[in-house]
Amino acid sequence: MRDLSDYSQPLTDLFDQPKNTEEWEKYKLSKEQVEFFHENGYVSGIKLLDEDQINVLKAALDEVADPQHPMHHLFHEFHSNESSDPNKVLFHSLGHWRIHPAFHDVIWNPAFLMAASQLLGDKSVRFWHDQLFCKPARHGGNVAWHQDYSYWTRTVKMQHLTCWCGLDDATDANGCLNYIPGSHRWGLLDKPALAGEMDGLKTMLNPEQLASFNPVSVPLKAGYATFHHPLMVHGSFANTSDYSRRAFVLNVFADGTVSDSDEPLLQGVPVIPKGEKMDGKFFPLIFKHQEP
Questions:
Q1: Which of 31, 56, 165, 180 has its CA 20 to 30 A from that of 202?
Q2: Whole-model pTM?
Q3: Cα(30)–Cα(50) distance, rounded to whole angstroms?
């Protein structure tokens, strides 16, 4: 057993790696998709996984979700239920890329990397951290309205991006992601409890923001992803269906981001002093943008 953060390249053949510029081109988002992202704060319906890859990642999730896993200590966070209510379960973890080769290699999925670079403004991309969000059937809890960067202000400047990808079909019934289009232009808001009351964030909004608080749900087939801006207000409701809702999240930032804290940026990660560049094995360069 080994800490897979020691390896800053794919370890398996789960994802074919492009060998030249032409092979990368097929993964590019369209101009219209990139424009939609900048206007609305998100872009959805990006296919990242085929059926075989979905099944491999589902099996990997079952392995790493076991608190008795021999490499469990490598998690930065692990919550069998981040909610305080046993009837509203939200499994949430960070760090599983260090434990299982499939979750390690999904970071190097070329479909993800090309989209991430484009949405960050055609920049080189570094890994920030991963997450799992799982809601069991019938009693899966909500994820409160929030902005991702409100939890990430220990890194600057703000040039981050989130990718959410389902391992199950995500529907309104089982708690798919919801966005507030245009909210990425509201500026930084205070952070609520992630598995707390759904509407805690709304108490922080001004009348104009409340008037434009019109959620749009984003149902997605398994294997498809949605990308969103770090200030995008988003959340997801409880799972009332007979089907689970399992998803993984990949968080990245543009190369050149620096630490804004003298505390550990993630549990178990050595301190990067305030003002120093985010790099090293925990924050690997996963895509190098080539100027045309």
A1: 165
A2: 0.96
A3: 21
Measure the CA–CA gap between 133 and 90, rounded to whole angstroms: 7
| Structural domains of the chain, with CATH | 48-287 (2.60.120.620)
Can you list the positions of beta strands (E) in 49-208? 77-79, 91-94, 125-135, 143-146, 155-156, 160-166, 177-179
Packing angle, helices 31-40 and 110-119, rounded to 10: 60
**Distance of CA 36 to CAs 44, 146, 278, Å?**
10, 21, 29
Rounded to the nearest 10°, the torsion over CA 17, 29, 161, 258 is 70
Burial of 6 (0-12, 13-18, 19+ CB in 10 A): exposed
Closest CA to 162 of 232, 101, 92: 232
The DSSP bridge partners found for residue 253 are: 126, 160
Q: What angle do CA 175, 243, 221 make, to 5 degrees?
A: 65
Angle at 12 between CA 94 and CA 15, to 5 degrees: 85
pLDDT tens across the length of the chain (292 residues): 799 999 999 999 999 999 999 999 999 999 999 999 999 999 999 999 999 999 999 999 999 999 999 999 999 999 988 877 787 888 999 999 999 999 999 999 999 999 999 999 999 999 999 999 999 999 888 999 999 999 999 999 999 999 999 999 999 999 999 999 999 999 999 998 888 789 999 999 999 999 999 999 999 999 999 999 999 999 999 999 999 999 999 999 999 999 999 999 999 999 999 999 999 999 999 999 987 6
